[in-house]
Amino acid sequence: MDKDLVIEVTPSKVSIALLEEGRLVEYNEEQSGDNFSIGNVFLGKVKRVMPALNAAFVDIGAKKDAF
Question: What is the largest CA-CA distance in the chain?
Answer without folding.
Answer: 36
